[in-house]
C-alpha cells in the first residue's frame, strides 16, 4: 500500500506536491483513502499505524480548507456504509478522524454551513 505517485485529476497539483513530498501520515491517509474511494478498491488500503490518528489530527490543521473538504467528502459518505470497514481498528480510526475534522472545519472555517448550503442547492 504505497501512496500512488500519479496525481489524480481531482487533486490540485500544488496540494499533491505539498503532501506527497512530505510523506506524512495525513498525506498517505488521504491519498490512499481518496484512491480507494475513487476506484472502489478498499482492499488495498493500508491498515495504518496505531498512532495514525494522533499524527493525522496534528497535521490536519496544516492541510487547510481543501484537505478538510476532501476528508469530509470521503468520510462523511463512507461512515454510512458499514461494509467499508475492514476491521474495528479502521472503523475507530475513521470515526475519530471524522469527529476531529467536523470540529476543526466547523470551528475554524464554517465548513459545515458551506456544505449544507451547497447540498440544499442554494447559490
From TrEMBL:
The source's superkingdom equals Eukaryota
| Native organism | Pristionchus entomophagus
Official protein name in the record: C2H2-type domain-containing protein
